[in-house]
Amino acid sequence: MKFELETYHRNTSDKELIDDLKKVANFLKKDSVTIDEYNEDGEYHATTLTRRFGSWFIALEKAGLKKTRTLGVTDEQYFQNLKEVWTKLGRQPKYNDMQKPLSKYVAGAYEYRFGTWRKALEKFVEYINQEDVPKIDKEELKSKPIKTHKTKSSISWRLRFIVMRQDGFKCKICGRSPATDPKIILHVDHIIPWSKGGETVPENLQTLCSKCNIGKSNLHN
User: Fold this and answer.
1) What is the number of other CB atoms lying within 10 angstroms of the CB of residue 9?
2) Phi-psi region of 97 (alpha: psi -120 to 50; beta: other; left: phi over 0)
3) How many helices and strands in the chain, by DSSP H and E?
4) What does the alpha-carbon distance between residue 109 and residue 98 come to, in Å, rounded to a whole number?
5) Three-class secondary structure of residue 65 per DSSP
6) Cis ω on the peptide bond leading into residue 101 (within 30° of 0)?
7) Cα 98 from Cα 115, distance rounded (Å)
8) What are the pLDDT digits (tens) for 42-101?
9) CA-CA-CA-CA torsion for 170, 134, 118, 82, nearest 10 degrees?
10) Is 163 helix (H, G, I), strand (E, B) or coil?
11) Which regions of the chain does DSSP assign to beta strands (E)?
12) 207: which strand partners?
């Protein structure tokens, strides 16, 4: 079999793209088409349509089809899913990364909610940066009496993400990461235990894989 480049669709007309989308809907006997369904049965790739028309939902609208979206999903649920994908990849997710089983929601769902994929990422960063974390000096962390805690013992998922990102989404002890081994589960734990005066701030938190975190807990027991 001869090796060939993929077909270049830059000169394909808007009508041809929309007609192909309609063709897939008719083939599936559905009044809407998801990105995954189109990539499976369409002549082109969904990215070609989203780039041409601005979003997958605009393409559906032009084809006279219903918009596909997940009902009842909050912004925070979208952000938590984005955090999980970001953590598993060890980098900022791209549009085409947002597919099952890696992601619960496709990029098109983020487009529908936030306008564009880029705006979804910007809103996510804005949301993460809203985490109000007190600034505590490292020396203060070591010397401060337990009774004067400035933070709670629980670690919010936003703070967990901040810490994992500063640690490169890798275990600080063994260096393993979900990006190279999907079986790895990352935790965020206190360096100085909260029960011993440690605060819940980035300076006193570290990323550990589940195995190393259990080992660390055993040492403190």
Assistant:
1) 16
2) alpha
3) 10, 2
4) 10
5) coil
6) yes
7) 16
8) 988 888 888 888 888 888 989 999 876 655 788 999 999 999 999 999 999 999 899 889
9) 50
10) helix
11) 186-190, 205-209
12) 188
- Which amino acid is residue 216, in one-letter code? K
* Helix, strand, coil percentages, rounded to 5, for the chain: 50, 5, 45
Amino acid at position 176, single letter: R
Query: What's the residue count for the chain?
Result: 221
* DSSP 8-state class, residue 199: -
SS3 187: strand
Question: Cα-Cα-Cα-Cα dihedral of 127, 55, 86, 134, to 10°?
Answer: -10
Q: Which residues contact 95 (CB under 8 A, 6 or more apart)?
A: 47, 50, 107, 117
Mean pLDDT value of segment 185-194:
92
Gyration radius (Cα) of the chain, Å: 23
d(CA 143, CA 150): 14
Identify the DSSP state of 146.
G
Convert the pLDDT of each residue in 116-156 to its tens digit: 899 999 999 999 988 777 676 666 656 555 567 788 889 99
CA 154 to chain centre: 22
CA distance linking residue 98 with residue 105, whole number of Å: 7
